[in-house]
Amino acid sequence: MLVHNKQILGHISSLLTNPLLVRRSTALRQFSTGTSPKSINTASATVNKYLSRNIRLTTGLALIIGGGWCVDTLCNKQTEVLDGKVDSLHVTASPGPRLMENNAYVHDYLNETYRLVGAGGVVTFLSAFALHKTQTFQRLMARNPVGVTIASLMASGAISSAAFLTPTELADVKLPLFAAYAVTKGVFVSSTLVINPRLLIRAGLYVSGLVGSLAWIGATTKSDNYIWTGGPLMGVITSTAIGLNLRTFLPPAMHSMPKLFSVYLYGGLAIFGTFILKDMEKVIRNGKRVYDGEKPRDTLNEALRLYTDFMNIVP
């Protein structure tokens, strides 16, 4: 009797451990619950990717806001007359109304210049995007990409010269020339995007962040010294925040880039940032001269000069 019971238990055990029955029971459980290991893994990966992206974005935003507050609090304390000259002798503890009026005018002059630069950037982006989606332009680029690039450079040079030489009083002529110059830069950007998209898109992200952060430094500065202390610090903070989020902004195919391109990009950004600060100093100096009545107000020329330097980072 005992042997018979052992045989029955052995049969039951073999049936429970049968691979076919195990697979069937697992499939029935998955069917009844409506889930599978593959779908669970996919959902988990999607959630992790979403959380990781949000964490990177939040970290980058906190870095820019917190870093900007620290830079402004620690470095932007003293007030001096804004004249485009780094000179500690100009610092005054109790600025008078004349100095405050001068600084307000220079800030307005600088902000108007950067608004024009921003408008030019929007025109360039829209024209580059439209051309990139145009089949005719794509066929032209496939036939002769170098010729299109050279032609856009020659056109932008001619138009910028015409805009510089146009008198300030002819704003109805000067403004369309500036817009046309921005469009030629859009052609150049679109042609370069076909040749080297990885480097150009990264450069565009960094340039946008760098210009925005330095424009904020110029709009809030109380002294010329702050441009050269807060400017580089804010540029490094913004570039770091953008670097943390490159995988968020770029498609997977553009996550990696050759080391030589990285050296070219970051070296170019360092030189580019120096040009921005020097141009900002020049705009402040010209704003002071306009306030003193030494030259006419011409923010379009200032914007054109700045925008030309901004585009020099494009490979």
Concise summary:
The protein has helices spanning 2-16, 19-33, 37-75, 97-132, 135-143, 145-165, 171-195, 197-220, 224-244, 246-249, 259-291, 299-311. By secondary structure, it is mainly alpha-helical. It is flat and about 60 Å long.
Describe the structure.
The protein is mainly alpha-helical and 315 residues long. The protein is 81% helix and 0% strand. α8 packs antiparallel against α9. The longest helix has 39 residues. The radius of gyration is 30 Å and the shape is flat. The termini are far apart. The relative contact order is 0.13. The N terminus is likely disordered.
Average pLDDT value?
76
DSSP E strands, number: 0
Helicity range of the residues? over 70%
How large is the share of residues in beta strands?
A: under 5%
The radius of gyration is 30 Å
Count of alpha and pi helical runs: 12
Oligomer state equals: single chain
**Class based on secondary structure composition and strand pairing:** mainly alpha
Q: State the low-pLDDT regions, or none.
A: 2-6, 20-24
Spatial gap, N to C terminus? 90 Å
Q: Quick one: overall form?
A: flat
Question: Can you give keywords for this protein?
Answer:
12 helices; 81% helix; disordered N terminus; single chain; mainly alpha; 315 residues
